[in-house]
Amino acid sequence: MLRAFLFASLCWGLLCAGPSGSAERWFAEPKSPRTASYRIEAALDWPGKALQGSETITWRNTGTAATAEFPLHLYLNAFKGPQSLFLKESGGRLRGDRMGTDADPQSWGYCRLLRVDLDGARLDGHPGEDETVYWVKLPRPVAPGETIRVDVAWEARFPRVYARSGWEGSFLMAGQWYPKVGVYQGDRWICHPYHAATEFFADFGVYDVSLSLPNFLRPAYTGTPVTSRGEDGRLYDATVDPKRPTHHLWRLHAEDVHDFAWAVMPKLSWGVKSWTYRGVEVYYYYQGANLDNLPRQRAAVEAALRAAAEWYFPYPYPVLTVVDVPGEARGADGMEYPTLFTAASSPFEPFGLRMLETVAIHEFGHQYFQGMLASNELEEPWLDEGLTSWFTHRVLGRNYHAMLGTRRFQVDTSFGDWAGFWIGPSIDPLVRRGYETMDEASTFRSAYNKPTLVLDQLEALIGRPQMDRVVAAYAQEMAFKHPTRQDFRRIAERVTGRDLGTFWRDFIEGTEVLDIVIERVAQTPTRTGGWVEGPKGMQFVPPQQVAPGATSSITLRRRGGISAPITLWVRLENRREHRLQWDGKDRWVTFDDPALFDAPIQAAILDPDGNYPLLKDRLHGHWVAKPARRGFHYWSQLLWGALTGFLQGAGLG
Ligand SMILES: [Zn+2]
């Protein structure tokens, strides 16, 4: 750490908190194509929660055709008024939080373009579907491979936060705060308006951001500060802003990222702790009451850093910043930005659920699946949310074993995804565009819940070693690109040497469910008698049971639309065991071969090897002739069964 702890001079500000490092350059070789780079200067008006900014966007046409358009996201216009798509779609609610009073101007915010110039000439344009996108018209087409520099001036006002960006109390989260160019792929601009249900998509670049902030504020930010040498010869993270004597000027730098975020709070209101782990400087900005959570937060972040390095590749950035959002600003919580994420904690967690760890690991996971594997979050949200949720479940399993665990009773780390999915498994396919799902719950199911279970299903199909190789190859080959699901499939098929067409159709693109149950178990006593031929001719013997004397049968039924070969394990009362295979193509099958089933069935288990984590109804995948001893285990299983049965029944797939 190069940071100076200053107590300062008239000219140099005090800057004892925040990621350090004087380097204006992180990487000797660019890690990304650096398609869109930003040099931004912005000053914060703290009482007004407003910004004045100017920026130069250096943009290269990496498409296949020339374009005379240059669309800019103006995300804060989502909060400009009730006419925005975001407001119409969300009704002013998001992820359990809601906007403040309509009549309060502070509930609203905006981003207003003041000027867009190219080579000194003023450019015009028009809004898109709503004012969250402005389509700038270029004076001439820009050819593939050509680079332009567009100068933009704007002003913005942050709303009271309920959806990621904004302020509450003395906390401000600046996300989506600057005009940002869309992504040009092939001959198509991808620059969707800000929808309620979806997040963002942007190109990689270098960010040099100069923020003028009131000097009593402590910022947390993407990237590292560019330090300056003070009159005393020491290095400082910020200097006094020559234009605004009560402000500090923070010069911040980040490379090969596709976004830049920052948050501020008065120095007295929050603290910062830092440590180095595996060469990464980790900064934890905490609310005072939550300092006791630091060991848990730290363990979780380190577990995630370690897992990602071992499974995919080491986290390449020099810094990672964790922002513990204050309770009143929860709308800003649980959000990922390059080298920074928000993960609130609470001093009180009554049920011992690993929520703090879950959020920290999940948001860290986005540094990979979203930060570096920057897929299109609007069109294929599962590629970032789903892979991140699956990563979270994996890291939790590895380090904490269960979401909630006692000696006998454990809640699996994917339980939340399992419960969320089965409430409505057939509403939207996993591949539905994020803003085209039926409702917010369905967005979560398609983007988070189902992919987690589907990736578990893929792992069960190909085996854990292969699965590890598939995801590692995907992460390594597609980092700093914009991977799509076709990339994932191509890599998975190459690594495994399998055709995944059926799996893809059933689980990735389809909405049917895998639902096979033990429908019926029966036994038939073996009896002899009736008219039989004896020494004196025909004689009547009353029918009677032959000891041991019974054959049995078992019927399986496929209730769901997905057919898959499945194993049935059966044990008979005479201790014989059978493993039977059913191709699952018909809607039902009965196994009743008397040579196999020559005694009553004692127990049966469908899918005994757990090949189908996505098998819907495990309750009806087990059968026993006699119930288990009614101990603690029995009753806890019964309770658990009732709960899971209720959850399944609530949707009836
Ligand atoms: Zn997420």
Please provide a written account of the structure.
This protein has ten helices and 37 strands. The two termini are 55 Å apart. The strands form ten sheets. Strands 1, 2, 6, 7, 10, 16, 18, 21 and 22 form a nine-stranded mixed beta sheet that branches. A five-stranded mixed beta sheet has the order 24-25-26-28-27, covered by helices on one side. The protein folds into three domains: 31-214 and 223-258, Immunoglobulin-like (Sandwich), CATH 2.60.40; 269-511, Neutral Protease, domain 2 (Orthogonal Bundle); 516-624, no CATH class. With 653 residues, the chain is α+β, with helices and mostly antiparallel strands. It is 23% helix and 34% strand. Helix 5 (415-422) crosses helix 6. It binds zinc ion.
